[in-house]
């Protein structure tokens, strides 16, 4: 094994040990380190084979963090994971594990954090804000009874 591959593999292992990573993030980092395409493929394959990279684990961690800390809705999470090139099957499995009570509580906290929606214009702003956070129209409507 060329010394360069060994060095890249070690650097990638350290990078993956700091936080959960996906293939796209690792490939970008390898490219920044000056790795050739073939070397990147070799290193990424090694990381998958040895458990440093796992799409299911990454999706679950990403969904958990975005729901718990950023209070994102399912739609925004789904789009962010797709943008990272992750398989739809893994994305949908991770989204299915969302605790519905926590999810609705997050939505309610976001609504409470905004000014009271007394006028039609304020209601539109609130709905637009929540849609941008990744919540669906139905989720928002059901949670904001009386604001429609």
Query: How are helices and strands ordered from N to C?
Result: HHHHHHHHH
Number of domains: 2
Provide the residue-averaged pLDDT. 94
Helical fraction equals over 70%
Q: How many strands?
A: 0
Shape: elongated
In words, what does this structure look like?
This protein is mostly helical and about 150 residues long. The chain folds into 2 domains: about 5-55, Arc Repressor Mutant, subunit A (Orthogonal Bundle); about 55-145, no CATH class. The chain contains 9 helices and no strands. The protein has helices spanning about 5-20, 25-30, 35-50, 55-70, 75-85, 90-95, 100-115, 120-130, 135-145. The termini are far apart. The model has no long low-confidence stretch (mean pLDDT about 95).
